[in-house]
Write a sequence for this structure.
DNA sequence: ATAAAATTTTAGACTAATCTAAATATTCAA
DNA sequence: TTGAATATTTAGATTAGTCTAAAATTTTAT
């Protein structure tokens, strides 16, 4: 009934809806790497299937939103499996999870979740929704909004693009580390950190915007 | 490049090639639950892609055969994972594995195989080929060819259809059991067994043809 | 307020995979 | 060996998903 293609569109619209104020045809086209013409055409089909509210206002219906969260749930559970159980590295799992997220069996998803002992986050620190679509609240902020002098825990990355994750690996940055903000440059947004009381690391604003931290203690 | 649809055709042709002398359009159509017209059309595409030798003689090329074995390998490894790791029952795994077998990542397949500790057979006793496509030799025969009075080990089932597996569950039959052939009726091919020196079980020829045994000792 | 720029939709075409109905080809049996 | 039955292929159509090019609409800037 719902194709893999449609699932990918719904997921794209969900992610865009989280950040952008209003989701546009061209933004979906950009994200899906398709032409705006194809997207326009697809939106008609999504509307006919009751997955988006309206053709002008690209917003997911409850049904569409639930579907998106199920796919994200599967994606993140599989990523966790790949890293925790099969010893993949965090930069290797995204494209495989893109395939596994479309496997349809709610029993499989629940058994996988149980096997992994109900993880709250995936290898990139992203929250894993439960089977009703509820996300755990992680109260994170982007590093770019951190206050100088304060101490934080590195919680998640905003994207799991391979080259970005490799860049973090090269800088020695890992989820769970304690980061003290040494200084923040106003004119370019760059940040200087002390990582685990040991190494100093400089980060550009571009990177800092994609790193999420929380002020709490380690788990 | 190679679609899920094509993978399913190649797998069907491989299985038919194992049993039937010559594979026919109508046999493929029957197995795929498609019309002969669709199959005829698809065979042209398979030939163009170098997956079958000829349009008249439906035989897989080396490339096609290797592809088939890779898909079967993945199917059986995933079935093993579902039963051994996620506690599924043997009659629940086939349809999920039908989806998982199309996930493309040879690294994933190898890591899964390693995690499962290089299993030789899947939950239905079917041999799992290695990454080069070589099957372990299990030297099995159908129960219908067993000799009365002799003792065998129940090694595998020839089909993993859910209703067939449920039938076996109801009779208390499980892989690895020792079966002594008490008698074999010539006129209808039915068989009477002593299972693990405890229970007597009667089986029709239809069932006996789909149960595979070997004469060796337990592993 | 209007023209230019950007965005979106429509029109028309293509591919993969399927179907039914009709035409062909092959096999089998009298 | 020849007509009937069976099997296969072709013809023509359909659906999902994509494209480019052109038309229409909306936004932005002068
Ligand atoms: Mn991912
Ligand atoms: Mn992730
Ligand atoms: Mn199976
Ligand atoms: Mn099996």
């Amino acid at each position: 009934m719902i194709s893999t293609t449609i699932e990918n569109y719904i997921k794209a619209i969900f992610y865009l809806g989280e950040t952008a104020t209003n989701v546009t045809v061209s933004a979906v086209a950009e994200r899906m790497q398709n032409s705006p013409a194809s997207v326009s055409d697809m939106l008609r089909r999504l509307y006919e299937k009751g997955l988006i509210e309206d053709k002008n206002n690209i917003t997911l219906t409850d049904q569409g939103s639930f579907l998106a969260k199920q796919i994200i749930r599967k994606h993140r559970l599989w990523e966790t499996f790949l890293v925790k159980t099969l010893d993949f590295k965090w930069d290797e799992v995204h494209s495989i999870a893109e395939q596994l997220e479309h496997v349809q069996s709610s029993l499989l998803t629940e058994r996988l979740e149980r096997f992994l002992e109900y993880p709250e986050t995936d290898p990139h620190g992203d929250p894993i929704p439960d089977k009703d679509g509820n996300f755990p609240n992680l109260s994170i902020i982007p590093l770019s909004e951190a206050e100088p002098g304060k101490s934080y825990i590195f919680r998640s990355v905003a994207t799991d693009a391979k080259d970005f994750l490799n860049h973090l690996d090269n800088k020695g940055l890992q989820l769970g580390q304690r980061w003290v903000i040494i200084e923040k440059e106003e004119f370019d947004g760059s940040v200087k950190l002390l990582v685990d009381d040991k190494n100093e690391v400089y980060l550009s604003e571009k990177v800092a915007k994609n790193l999420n931290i929380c002020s709490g203690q380690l788990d």
Observations:
- Residues 3, 5, 34-35, 37-38, 41-42, 45 of chain B lie near DNA strand C (CB under 10 Å from a C1').
- Chain B touches chain A at residues 82, 85-88, 92, 95-96, 99-100, 102-105, 107-108, 111-112, 115 (CB under 8 Å).
- Chain B has a mean pLDDT of 94.
- The first helix of chain B runs from residue 4 to 19.
